[in-house]
Amino acid sequence: MDVMDIRRKHALPSADEAIPGRSERMEVTHAHTVLGTPLEGPFDASLEMAMFGLGCFWGAERLFWKVPGVYTTAVGYAAGHTPNPTYREVCSGQTGHNEVVLVVFDPAKVSYGALLSVFWESHDPTQGMRQGNDWGTQYRSGIYTYSEAQSAAALASLKTYNERLVAAGYNAITTEVLSATEFYYAEAYHQQYLDKNPAGYCGIGGTGVACGIGTGVSA
């Protein structure tokens, strides 16, 4: 790997440096293979959206579709510059996007705090531009919020969990908390990948430190 490749894996490009992308949207070809629900909206007004990046989105999505009260999930790309990027482009490090999971949930059945608990306890949020053996800016830890209430809850949970991780001997959290940008759907074969390929790769793994704000689920 040359110096430029290393830089692209560890540094986010500016808007001027990012590749141009395209105007055509990725086609969404099927419903959720586990839940049977639509992957894209419009969704009922009673539902809310959340978005998380916690490493390879194959295993991350499976975590959230298991949570009771989650209506649907989809994987895609967010928090970058390139419009309608492809998987190959995101993996190049030249779009600025993160691999993320869009979670549509019923707040009457599951709280945003419970989803935050799944997020924090299912990965190591102290690793910067990587997650385990997966290296690159697309594997960074991120919470992308859809309201001021979500932002406040995310930041409060980050503070609490950071204190717990540091007390347990970990470095400080590197998770970014940003307002949600446009969610670009990933290619169809990535959607519910571990349902279609049960023996497929899953790099998801937590620290073993409880965050104390909700009930998580195992990978």
UniProtKB/TrEMBL annotation:
EC numbers on record: 1.8.4.11
SUPFAM superfamilies in UniProt: Peptide methionine sulfoxide reductase
Key words of the record: Oxidoreductase
Claim: Transferase is one of the keywords in the record: no
One Pfam family hit: PMSR
Catalytic activity entry: [thioredoxin]-disulfide + L-methionine + H2O = L-methionine (S)-S-oxide + [thioredoxin]-dithiol; L-methionyl-[protein] + [thioredoxin]-disulfide + H2O = L-methionyl-(S)-S-oxide-[protein] + [thioredoxin]-dithiol
MF-aspect GO terms: peptide-methionine (S)-S-oxide reductase activity
EC main group: oxidoreductase
Sequence ranges assigned to domain Peptide methionine sulphoxide reductase MsrA in this UniProt record: 50-202
Residues forming the catalytic site: C56
Function: Has an important function as a repair enzyme for proteins that have been inactivated by oxidation. Catalyzes the reversible oxidation-reduction of methionine sulfoxide in proteins to methionine.
Family membership: Belongs to the MsrA Met sulfoxide reductase family.
Protein name as catalogued: Peptide methionine sulfoxide reductase MsrA
UniProt organism field: Candidatus Paraluminiphilus aquimaris
Gene: msrA
